[in-house]
Amino acid sequence: MAGQSDPHLSIFSPSEVEFVAEDEIVEIVPNIRMDALNMICGDFGPFFPQIPTKVPLWLAVALKKRSKCTIRTPDWMTVDRLTQVLEAERESPREFQPLPFHYIEISKLLFDHARDDISDAYLVRSLIEDIRDVRFHKVETGLETISGRTHAVKLKNLSAMEVNIVRPFMVRTLQAFYKHDSPQMIQQADNTGSRATPVTDRGPRRDLRRR
Amino acid sequence: MSSWDDDDSAAAAATDVELLKRAWRNEKAAPEILRFDSPLVSRVREQIQLLEETLDDFADSGVDDLVVSLYQMDLDRTLFLLRSYLRLRLQKIEKYTMHISRSDDLLSRLSQQERRFAKSCAEIMEKHLEQSVLSKLPYGYDSVTRQSLSSTEDDMVPEPQLDTFVFCKTKSDVGAFQLDDIGEEVVDLVADDLYVLRYKSIKGLVEGGRIDLI
Q1: Residue in chain A lying closest to B64 (CA)
Q2: Cβ–Cβ below 8 Å for B196 and A171
Q3: Cβ contact (<8 Å) for A41 and B83?
Q4: How far apart, in whole angstroms, are the C-alpha atoms of residue A36 and residue A59?
Q5: Could you give the number of structural domains in chain A?
C-alpha cells in the first residue's frame, strides 16, 4: 500500500525505485493502430503499425506483455557500448562511468519482459552484471575512506539503485562520524570518485585514535 | 539519457506528475516535514477525478479493453504517488506531533486538513499519556513536554534530526556552497552530480527548489 512500504520514512523500497524508473522513455515499434493516449502523466501516440514511438517504460512493458509491440533496445544497452563502459570502469578505480540513472531497473525490466527484442541478450546481461560488480566494489572501497573529516561525499554518476542500496549504511556512517568526531578544524575531502580537487590545508589533521 | 535533461525551465516543461514525483521524493528523503504544495495537489486531484470520470464513460461506451487498461494504469500510478505523498506527511506529523504543534513555521507548512489532524493527534496523545502514565508520577515529573521541573527546555518532545545526511542532486550549477557556519566546509555543487550532504546545510536550497533529494 502506498506509504506503508517502510518503517523508516526515508528509505525507498526497491519497488519504489523501480516505480520511478518506469517513467523513463523508451522507443517501441507497435504492431497495432491506436489513438493517442492523453494521460495524466503525458500525451503519447497516436500509434501506427511499424512506426517507432516514444513511450514511458511502464507503458511499453504493458503493451509488450499483450504482444502489441516490440521494444527497441536503448543505445546504451548494446554489447559494444557496454563492453566499452566495462573496460572504462575497470580502468578508472576512482570514477564511475556515465550510465543512465536507472540503468539497472531499465535493463531488468527489459530482460524480464522483452528479452527477445534484445540482440545478444545473454551477453548484454552478463556485461551489465559485471559492470554492477565493478561499480559496487568501487563504492565499497570508497566507503572505507570516510572519516571524521568527511563533511560531504561526491558520487558522480552513481545510479538510482546503487544509491538506494548504499544509502542506509552511508547515512548512518556519516552521522556517526559527524557526531563523534567533529573537530574544530575539518578539512575538505572529496572521497568516492571524481576529478582530483586540490585539498586546502586548513590545520593539523586529527585522526581517529586507532585501537 | 535521464529525465534531468528534459526540463530546461524549472516548472514550465515538467508535467504535474513529474512535479508530484519530485515532491514525493523530497518528502521521503527529508527528515522534517516540507511545505505542502497545495496548488499541485489540487491540480492532480482534478486530473485524477477527470480521468476516473472518463474511464466510467469508457466502460459504458465500449472502448477497447487495452486502452481502458492503459488509462487505468496511468490512474493507478498517479494515485499511488498522491497517496504515498499524503501518507508520508501524515507519518511525519504523527511522529513529531508535539514538535510541529508548537512551531508556527512548521504548522504553516501543513495543509488545512493536516493541521486539524496534527491538532487532534497532539490532544489525543497528551490525554493518553496523562491518563496512563503521567497522572501517576510524582509532582514535578508529570509534564508531557519536560522530563522534570528542573529541565530548562522541553526535552521530552521528539524532534526530527536535521543533521542527518541526504543524497541530492542540483538542477543547475550552484557553485561554491558553504556547508557550515564557520566557513570551513565549502563544496562546489555542479549540476547533475550526486552529493551526500547534511540536510541542515542545504535546507534552504531544497525549499527554493534548487536541489532535489534522491
Answers
A1: A34
A2: yes
A3: no
A4: 13
A5: 2
Q: A147 and A68 share a domain?
A: no
- CA distance to partner chain A, nearest, from residue B92 (Å): 8
Contact between chains at B44 and A167 (C-beta distance less than 8 A): no
A204 preceded by a cis bond (ω within 30 of 0): no
Inform me whether the C-beta atom of residue B180 falls under 8 Å from chain A C-beta atoms: yes
Q: Which whole-number Å values give the CA distances from B73 to A199, B44, B48, B70, B121, in the listed order?
A: 51, 15, 12, 5, 35
Tell me A52's DSSP state: -
pTM to 2 decimal places = 0.83
Which cell numbers hold the place of B120? 487532534
Same-domain status, A84 and A160:
yes
Say whether both A128 and A45 belong to one domain. Answer: no
Q: Does B74 contact A102 at a Cβ distance shorter than 8 Å?
A: no
Give pLDDT tens digits for A48-89: 999 999 999 999 999 999 999 999 999 999 999 999 999 999
Query: With an 8 Å Cβ cutoff, is B46 touching chain A?
Result: no
Q: At what angle do helices B38-61 and B65-95 cross, to 10 degrees?
A: 150
Rounded to two decimals, the ipTM of the complex is 0.83
DSSP string, B112-167: HHHHHHHHHHHHHHHHHHHHHTGGGSPTTS--SS-SSTT-SS-TTS----TT-EEE
> Residue A195 is placed in which grid cell?
576529478
Query: Of A3, A10, A102, which is closest to B87 when you measure between CB atoms?
Result: A3
Pick the last residue of a domain from A37, A53, A72.
Answer: A72
Chain A neighbors of B75, CB-CB under 8 A = 40
Q: Domains in chain B and their CATH numbers? A: 161-214 (3.40.5.60)
Residue A194 placed within a domain: no
Out of A72, A92, A113, a domain closes at A72
* B49-77 confidence digits (pLDDT tens): 999 999 999 888 878 889 999 999 999 99
The whole domain housing A177 covers: 73-181
Same domain assignment for residues A51 and A103: no
Quick check: is A207 in a domain? no
Is the CB of B49 inside 8 Å of chain A's CB atoms?
Answer: no
Closest chain B residue to the Cα of A98, Cα to Cα: B1
Nearest to B179 among A4, A152, A155 (CB): A152
Separation in Å, CA of B106 to nearest CA in chain A: 18
- Within this chain, do residues A60 and A89 fall inside the same structural domain, yes or no? no
Whether A148 is in a domain gets the answer: yes
- Together in a domain, A79 and A132: yes
